[in-house]
Amino acid sequence: MNTYRLKGAATLRPVRIGDDGTHTYIQWSEDQPIPAVFALDSRGSEQIVDGYMRGELFTIDRVYPHLVFRIDKDKAEARRIDPRGARR
User: Fold this and answer.
1) What single DSSP character describes residue 20?
2) Is residue 43 helix, strand or coil?
């Protein structure tokens, strides 16, 4: 499972995020609201991602190198880290 570096608003950061190379799995704690999830396109613009809840996990049917979580003006980010520690 690949790991991610998180930054930004602590209230929006997931408690767990990872991917298997095909799907991305995100979990927030039960007391956290689930934010809107965006991916950055090649120009750096945010595009909403399609995802669905499977049990406690928000599942995205692909892997993005950079995800953004937003509620109102609050923002957090997750950047995918490859196993050698370099950003993808």
Assistant:
1) -
2) coil
